[in-house]
Amino acid sequence: MPYIRYQVADKIATITLDRPEAANAQNPELLDELDAAWTRAADDDDVVVIVLRGEGKHFLAGHDLKGGGGLPEKITLESIIKVEARRYLEYSLRWRNTPKPSIAAVQGRCIAGGLMLCWPCDLIVAAEDALFSDPVVAMGIGGVEYHGHTWELGPRVAKEILFTGRPLTADEAHKIGMVNRVVPRAELDASTRELAEQIARMPPFGLRQAKRAVNQTLDVQGFYAAIQSVFDVLQTGHGNALSVSGYPILTRLEEMKAQLK
Predict the structure, then answer these.
(1) How many CA atoms are closer than 13 Å to the CA of 191, on its beta-carbon side?
(2) pTM (2 d.p.)
(3) Is 217 helix (H, G, I), strand (E, B) or coil?
(4) In 95-219, where do the E strands start and end?
(5) Long-range contacts: 14-18, Cβ < 8 Å, 24+?
(6) Among 37, 39, 75, 158, which residue has the least CB neighbours within 10 Å?
(7) CA distance linking residue 210 with residue 194, whole number of Å
(8) Facing residues of 6 across strands?
(9) Residue 246 reports pLDDT greater than 80
């Protein structure tokens, strides 16, 4: 897998986003490889805990719609929904519901689509330099396809982050409960590993049931139905953008990526 590294040691599967030259921006191939890695870890009886990390300066710089295959020659709302329902919504929900504890280790920028990778994880360890943002309202879109915003941030912070596009710092994310731990950048991998090892010593069935209890409670409160509903709301942004000549979302994405270099 050219974009993903996968390792298992001491009951811990480590999935590494390995596209640092593009700030790990997610193209269709990276997402397909990532989903395959999650499935592999879920099916491996020797794996108790899953760790997701990104190689390089940034965890993930969002979508890279120009960066790979799987896109139609002509972009239509139907083609967008077909791609995003599978690679964004379905994948994120599947990772969230994987019956094993998962930890995201986040450094640098975690932009838009990056949230759809760390939010499905059960725990998040952030480096002090981590910045979480969803600036896509500037493109006429109401947020990323996996709307964890309201659940992860609370309604008022979610609105502020979406309305302004400003990034949330690691300390801010920790104060509101989105992030479990904030550590120095140099200690990110070691601290995440230490936490994973602590969890891996627990009985796997107990971990599975504890995760199910929490996720099921959120679903009873409306999480799953809300995620599905807001996905449809978000698509109106794509429909509006398609009515503008040149589909400017692609241009704006490239401008955002250039700012990270």
Answers:
(1) 19
(2) 0.91
(3) helix
(4) 102-106, 109-111, 123-127, 131-133, 168-169, 181-183
(5) 14/51, 14/53, 15/41, 15/50, 15/51, 15/52, 15/53, 16/53, 16/54, 16/55, 17/52, 17/53, 17/54, 17/55, 17/59, 17/60, 17/117, 18/55
(6) 39
(7) 20
(8) 15
(9) no
